Amino acid sequence: MVIDWTENEAEVLMNEYEVHRCLWDPSHPNYHSNNERTHAYVKILDKLGDKFNITDIKKKINSIRTQFNQERNRLMKMTESGIGRVEDTRFKYYDRLSFLAESVDIRRNQRSITPKSSEETQSASASSLHPTSSLVSSVSSASLSDPSGAP
Questions:
Q1: What's the CA gap between 58 and 70, in Å, rounded?
Q2: Angstrom distance (rounded) from CA 54 to CA 48
């Protein structure tokens, strides 16, 4: 069943969500604590009343986070290309949810970090510099292995 949220209920939810950093901030010490997160959801429920349950709150949070992220990505692309400004947002809660921007960046950076061996990392770094860098890399390796420079 889809629950209709009033403007006031949505505002209360966003206010309480921001207060409970363990729900959205990956650097918060209790971010991975299911007990603390559940406790935070219960506190939000207390503020909203009997109309909602935890599932309703999670769905609404997921919805507004998704909208925020989509709008943020759209605005970043427009700003980078020079055809728009951040003020051109179409999402009415964008400014209100701006506190999520840092956590989105933290999560994005955490996902982009994958453990690699140092050799893989050096190879990937070299190949991303220039299309002919693998040639440069193999020449550098050859010259390192024979200091005289002889083939």
A1: 18
A2: 11
144 or 11: whose pLDDT is higher? 11
Residues 47, 30, 23, CA angle at the centre, nearest 5°?
Answer: 45
Q: How far, CA to CA in Å, does 44 sit from each of 7, 23, 128, 138?
A: 16, 11, 47, 59
Using CB atoms within 10 A of its CB, is residue 144 exposed (0-12), middle (13-18) or buried (19+)?
exposed
Is the entire prediction scored with pTM above 0.70?
no
Residue type for position 93: Y
Alpha helices (H) along 20-150: 34-48, 54-81, 100-112, 118-129, 133-145
- Between CA 44 and CA 8 the distance in angstroms is 14
Give me the phi and psi of 94, to 5 degrees please.
-55, -50
Q: Bigger pLDDT: 51 or 134? A: 51
Predicted pLDDT at 138: 37
Q: What are phi and psi of 5, to 5 degrees?
A: -100, 130
Q: At 134, list the tokens.
A: 């693998």
Q: How far is CA 122 from the centre of its chain?
A: 26
